[in-house]
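Entry 14. Ran structure prediction on the chain below.
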Amino acid sequence: MEPLDLQPLFDTYHRKIAKVSLRFKRYLYSQINWKARIISIKGARGVGKTTMLLQHILDSYENIDKTLYASLDDLWFSTHSLMDLVDWAYRHGISRLYLDEVHRYEGWSSLLKNIYDGYPDLSIVYTSSSLLVMDNAKVDMSRRQTTYTLYGLSFREYLEMEDKYHSNALSLEQILLGHVKEAMKIVSKIKVAPLFEEYLEHGYYPFYQESIEDFPMRLRETVLVVIDSDLPAVEIVTFETLQKVKKLLMIISEHIPFEPNMSELWRQLSTDNQLGLRMLYAIDKAQVLGLLKTKAKNYKSLTKPEKIFLGNTNLMHVLCPFVDKGNERETFFLSQLKVNHNITYPQCGDFLVDGKYLFEIGGKSKTFDQIADIPDSFLAVDDTEVGHGNRIPLWLFGFLY
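Output, structure tokens:
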């Protein structure tokens, strides 16, 4: 392969990296062991995976052409193979490749295994859809790679991205035990309420900065790409099934949070329980939905969820015909806690965290009546700057990552 053959890839690479800033980096950036030979970064569309790859190149190379970034959904790969690119890079002294959207390349897992075994001096950082479950890949890569999952912006990250407030993330224990001190420190610097409302409406996806006016349209388009393009790249689905997935999403969006009558839901979709649950869990893996069950989710054993939420509050504002404040609060709480914690549906209250901490979510007038006298129970309350005792401001849970 001649250098001229690679020019389209380098042109795209240079255009993308020219627009990248190092001012703000996602929470996951500092957690990644960038020295690992194969690094997998999964995540929903639009949460910043590509930007993170390009930032690491800028951080790591004075001459960016000592490495190469390529997206495997690029048209270049319709007439060239990934192995051609890998072989060229290896022979020209490139020791690390950054590959985007690998799930869009047929046979990607087998190729990565062959690269790992056949090019011992070459390392790869790649991104893929959060739809992928590595245990289900045709070739098991779990023993060869280090895998990370990137979620959307937390409220803390949104404040930093907007240059309003800069701080480290808080652990759940720091919030539960010291929320008064932490909240007072923050509200002494900024007016939290209007910024929190902004975040709930458009702050989860970093691409909101490109145009807030166009954000709703772009987010709808992102959801459609997940269904029409990413899902077929990962699952064997028919056109009819894709249409049912869209209908399923709209049925749920009109009734969030959705407490499913599965028989009625499958009847509306003209489908059976097995296919219905597969569709449901696929949208959950794509981070478009949030399924709440009495036990931790297991993608090998698909069982009925107790409650179904949208994946984050931004999706509520573009997909739901009406945004109910109570549902928005619960969706926010779930979206922030699920990143680092196990969330299940309790017998009483709204959420059980890590099998220990019980939470009820509500407005500032919310009482402990429903979870009275239960150990390790807390209220996460909206419209409140600073809490007291076991009453914690809802917005503060946006500082968990």
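The chain has a mean pLDDT of 93. Will compare against last week's run tomorrow.
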